[in-house]
TrEMBL record:
GO molecular function, one term: pyridoxal phosphate binding
Residue list for modification N6-(pyridoxal phosphate)lysine: K60
UniProt name for this protein: Diaminopimelate decarboxylase
Function of the protein: Specifically catalyzes the decarboxylation of meso-diaminopimelate (meso-DAP) to L-lysine.
Description of how the protein assembles with itself and partners: Homodimer.
Annotated binding of pyridoxal 5'-phosphate, by residue: G239, E275, P276, G277, R278, Y375
Every Orn/DAP/Arg decarboxylase 2 C-terminal domain range: 29-373
Pathway connected to this protein: Amino-acid biosynthesis; L-lysine biosynthesis via DAP pathway; L-lysine from DL-2,6-diaminopimelate: step 1/1
InterPro entries: Ala_racemase/Decarboxylase_C (IPR009006), DAP_deCOOHase_LysA (IPR002986), De-COase2_C (IPR022643), De-COase2_CS (IPR022657), De-COase2_N (IPR022644), De-COase2_pyr-phos_BS (IPR022653), Orn/DAP/Arg_de-COase (IPR000183), PLP-binding_barrel (IPR029066)
A Gene Ontology biological process term: lysine biosynthetic process via diaminopimelate
Known cofactor(s): pyridoxal 5'-phosphate
Gene: lysA
Catalytic activity: meso-2,6-diaminopimelate + H(+) = L-lysine + CO2
Protein residues bound to substrate: R278, R314, Y318, E347, Y375
Length: 430
């Protein structure tokens, strides 16, 4: 069952009408479904159950502490990419030995913090980083558990801004120098070389690029072993896509992805890590928003909503599509119309949709931007003096505010904001 569904003409998150959440919390706000998150983590765990694999949720997709607590409570680990994410994962109760630290520009301070926390693995992306990590580890008197991220030079066939495994991308060590770097790492006293890591991109809907990349890594493992390098671990990254259009073909499920893993690298005797982010969180969240005005222009009609590009950047940044559903289902036979759905920010790019077929929305109507659980709230900012929006986690017929709307006191830099901006004044017309 999809956990965002219509019941009695109203869009619900599990058993909670989104109208109830909007009234209690105000809009815009993010709403997450515990049931969907749970189902997705379990789907990966079940698909990989016969493989020696750990699932490390890429928290860059959704760093809400309650979401992290839920996901790690189901046994998953976490893939972090900064000292901030590391601190947040630990604060959410993620055991350090289930944390993998990725990222192309980790500072010495971040590397030191990861070593002191005792993380499972640090994925090193360049020779200078390897040298820095060696020095930090020796200074701390430890050996850093390292996987070296290689760039397999495979086209992930996804949006150009989110492909990471092509030679021209900044990520990983070039394929041609990989062997030399491994040989070098083996001689370093601060480095405990564990294996190979890769990640080819995000929102990947075709398994062929994964297959090609994993086969390349398989070849590399054979070469490394011939060089006398022990390869005990393989970190295959994340990247499995999700459906953003209701009518789309469904992307390959975790079982099909696991089958590719099994077929390509399953017999290498390596402990595996996968780092799904979007596939776990994407369809577990919506951004709930209210129409402020309907503006009938001469050539187009605009639904101006209270969410904006600062709350959900994906349409402005990648021209990404998010389905938009009215929270009150239109009655049968209601004619649709074409609307541009835009936010209040002073940029023409603050456009969620152009010429979208929607029921005739009016001011005050609630709409949900679907599939906003990944790369939604985490990428939000306060552009145009708009405070970050609350986040709500639904669990059956209950919901919890898991990130509250900042109060006047929280916004030290904006402390003179009037209360109405923070929704502390009830709107007289509602
Ligand atoms: C190293 C690494 N691991 C995991 C992920 C998560 O990717 P996705 O959300 O597409 O699963 C990313 C982001 O693309 C990444 O850079
Ligand atoms: N933020 C991107 C994905 C980047 C993936 C992180 N490496 C998105 O919304 O699709």
């Amino acid at each position: 069952m999809h956990h965002f569904h219509y019941r009695d003409g109203t869009l619900h998150a599990e058993a909670v009408p989104l109208t109830t959440i909007a009234e209690a919390v105000g809009t815009p706000c993010y709403v997450y479904s515990s049931a969907t998150l749970t189902r997705h983590v379990r789907a990966f765990a079940d698909a990989f159950a016969d493989l020696d694999a750990r699932i490390c949720f890429a928290m860059k997709a959704n760093g809400n502490k309650a979401v992290l607590r839920l996901v790690t409570g189901l046994g998953a680990g976490v893939d972090v990419v900064s000292g901030g994410e590391l601190a947040l994962a630990l604060a959410a109760g993620a055991p350090a030995d289930r944390i993998v630290f990725s990222g192309v520009g980790k500072t010495e301070a971040e590397l030191g913090a990861a070593l002191q926390a005792g993380v499972h693995q640090i994925n090193v992306e360049s020779e200078p980083e390897l040298e820095a990590l060696d020095a930090v580890a020796q200074h701390l008197g430890v050996r850093a558990p390292v996987a070296i991220r290689v760039n397999p030079d495979v086209d992930a066939a996804t949006h150009a801004k989110i492909t990471t495994g092509k030679a021209e991308n900044k990520f990983g060590i070039e394929w041609t120098s990989a062997r030399a770097v491994f040989r070098r790492a083996r001689t370093m006293d601060g480095i405990a070389l564990k294996g190979v890591a890769l990640h080819i991109g995000s929102q990947i809907l075709d398994l062929a690029p994964f297959e090609a990349a994993f086969l390349r890594v398989r070849d590399l493992v054979a070469l490394l072993r011939a060089d006398g390098v022990a390869v005990e671990r393989l970190d295959l990254g994340g990247g499995l896509g999700v459906p953003y259009h209701a009518g789309d073909e469904t992307p390959p499920p975790p079982t099909a992805y696991a089958e590719v893993v099994r077929r390509t690298v399953g017999d290498l005797g390596c402990a595996l890590t996968i780092e799904p982010g979007r596939a776990i969180a994407g369809n577990a969240g919506v951004l709930l928003s209210r129409v402020i005005y309907l503006k009938e222009g001469i050539t187009r009609a605009f639904a101006i909503v209270d969410a904006a590009m600062n709350d959900l950047m994906r349409p402005a940044l990648y021209d990404a599509w998010h389905d938009i559903r009215p929270v009150r289902a239109p009655s049968a036979g209601t004619e649709t119309r074409l609307l541009d759905v835009v936010g209040p920010v002073c940029e023409s790019g603050d456009t969620f949709a152009r010429d979208r077929t929607l029921p005739p929305l009016v001011a005050g109507d609630l709409v949900a931007f679907m599939t906003a659980g990944a790369y939604g709230a985490v990428m939000a900012n306060q552009y145009n003096g708009r405070p970050l929006v609350p986040e709500v986690l639904v669990d059956g017929d209950r919901f919890h505010v898991v990130r509250r709307r900042p109060s006047l006191d929280d916004l030290a830099a904006l402390e003179d904001l009037p209360p109405w901006l923070l929704r502390e004044w009830p709107c007289p017309r509602r």
